[in-house]
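Morning!

This is the sequence you dropped in the shared folder:
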Amino acid sequence: MRQIKGKCIIVFLVILAFHLITAGNAAAIAISVNNGAGQVANFTSIQAAVNAANPGDEIIVKPGIYEENIKVTKSLSIVSESGNFSNTIVRAANGSEDIFSIWANGVSIKGFSINGSSSAGIHFFGAIDCHIENNKLSNNGCGIDLYMFSSGNQINNNEISDSLTGISLGGSSYNNMSNNSISNCGNGISLFDSPNNKLENNFVSKNSEGISLSGESNGNTLINNIVTLNKKLGLHIYETSNNLIYNNYFNNIVNVEPEPVSRVNIWNTTKTTGTNIAGGPYLGGNLWAKPNGTVVYPEGVRDADLDGILDVRYNIEGSEFIDYLPLTESKPNTIIVSNSAGQAADFVSIQAAVDNASPGDVVIIYPGIYRENIDVPVTNLTLISASGSPADTIVKGTSSEDNVFYVTADGVTIRGFGITGPINSPYAGIRLNGVKHCYIENNQISDKYNGAIPNPSSGSIPIVGNNSSSNVEIEIRPESSDYNVLSNNIVSGNGISLLLRNSSENTIVNNSVSDSSYGIWVDSSNNNTLNENNVSYNKAGIYVKVSSGNMLNNNTAFNNSDSGINLWNSGENILSNSTVSNSNVCIVLHDSSENVLNNNTVSDSNYGTWLYSSSNNNKLNNNRALNNKVGIYVKASSGNALTENIALNSTASGINLWDSVGNTLNSNIASRNEVSISLQNSSKNSLLNNTATSNIYGIWLGSSSNNKLDDNTASNNKFGIYLKNSSNNGLSGNWANSNSRYGVYLGSSRSNILTNNKVVSNSEYGFCLMDSGNSSIFNNLFNNTNNIYFQGTNPGTSLNTTMTQGTNIIGGSNLGGNFWATPKRNGFSQTRPDKNGDGICDVAYAVNKECIDYLPLAGPRVTN
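The structure's back. Tokens below.
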């Protein structure tokens, strides 16, 4: 024992001598601290060592329990000798003061257990370039507190627990906090007015609040953190902006709580190759979960290309915050199928792979011809061809009395196959029965598939009689199935290519459907979306029957022999931005009400758009009807509103109402038709602000009564406005000009009222009245070489009203008769005096024995 003590004294003297030698030139030295018996050390307290040390020295603290509060005002490294915080413990001597208070730059504290202060375990005061690593801090007011513009510090690999706040930054920037574990605190990590810090690879769990960013805490980066099971919320955002938050795992009852004044933050990085926090192959956004396992994303969201990133953006917690590239934590098993020699595989048949699959697995099928009928009862199963091409991976059903694919589980994906029959109804190439969130994509389906895209048929098309699907094949058939997606499929067959029955909220997008009796048939199915499909060479392209609330947008339908898009007894659907051509009828509504047709183009057909059989209260806005026999045809239907449509080059009528009541035509343009706007046997309709030009007949009323024609323009036609056998109509504010025969013609049409119209520059006559008595014609402006022509008898016709004070059509102060002018300025109203200046000529204008304008309007005052 005496020898050991002697050796220790010698070692101590050597160390002391070395310290004395090097102290003079300020070289860094190691100073030891030990407060236990039996170990040689320079000091027994850490504070004493700090006081004695010079900047740059290292203080090595031997295992033990040190009860003190330490103030560091020099650049020092303070480390535990063991590197193990479990045996080197620093406990507050005064529980109301900080345990370590740091007032100098370049301080390192490593390997301690630090606890027992109601203030802070480690407290920075404007310190820079410090390193706090591998410590355990517990039961403090705050574990680590960076304050007063503390910047450039590294806070790494610390364990912090059971404190009011784990790590707090106030007014501090450019610090790095990584690989820390913070748990069971009030706030895990809290930043206030602290910008441009980096939080990386931290584990923040079971606190009241996980991470909080508030005040001017802008431009921070949160990456690779796990924020989980925090009781109140995971991340609190208040007032801050431009924080980059990606590749974190959030799993809390409330993951993010934004305050109303929260600003714009970034919740994902650009999609980049690299292993993400869920083990996926790409970096993107964050992984969002709930502790009870419920799905935070919208139901049915998936990762179609298996890149580890979901296919839709996520509005975080329903807020305005958007993660555009949310991650998925699913890591599916992969099952290989091949029936070709030389390709290693788990199974040689698709059905065998399905039978052995678990929910969420991916079955990859290599090229070949698979002769089988496949039942799919496995949830979230993905069946994809290895090549992605339906040309080389063909599934051919072996029984015509069975479905080729029969799906009875939710979340199934079938992608990239050539699928063929023969198939008899009610079976299908792909049948979905009572399922949700399935995806049918990039398949080619036909009753006679040969691996090549079929050419459109130029011959006759087999017809499905009486709207029945009996004895015909069906290629894709969702039935009683909701929220599924059918996209980018090529489908053809003699019967029904795609049948949707009793199914809602499905999306049918970008499919090509041809050579069928019915291309897409939506039957008793509501609130589906049909977008950007191409339906051609069918009997009926898209057929919607007893269905409502569907959206049909941007579809193309051409060369369908009967109709391009057909609504039968269906209401409240929206058809927009579609192009339909070369059919008997492009768009037809039968007994279908409350629909909206907007911005469609219909062309080169007998009928562009046809509403009939009580198709009421529909809205047709901004549609174009080009080169049809009849552009827009409304028959036996009421309450429809046609607004700002264009009808051009119709061989019969641009817009035609037949046996229809109470419709409104507003601001439509009809040009280069035989008849631009035609009413036949129709009453109580309103024609407002329409333009009819370059036709034989601009506006035609035949056997139509009680209609209102206001502010329309009929120009450069043969006949501008033409009424035949039509009574009790009101024409007001119309402009009929430059028509080659008559501006306005009334033939056998009684009791009509014409007022405030301008009828000018018409070649034969401005106004022709033939056997049309009891009409009231006043306050119109006529300016033609020949203003008025009477034929037959027109008893009871009046050319003026009672003189009444009010602004007339040429700005005079009284209403009375009409203004009679000629282009040569020698008309009656232009040459007769108005000596008292009341705006009425002093003499009556006798047009003929039957019709006299007793109060013709006067032009500029003529006194002699």
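Headline: The radius of gyration is 43 Å.

More detail when I'm at my desk.
O.
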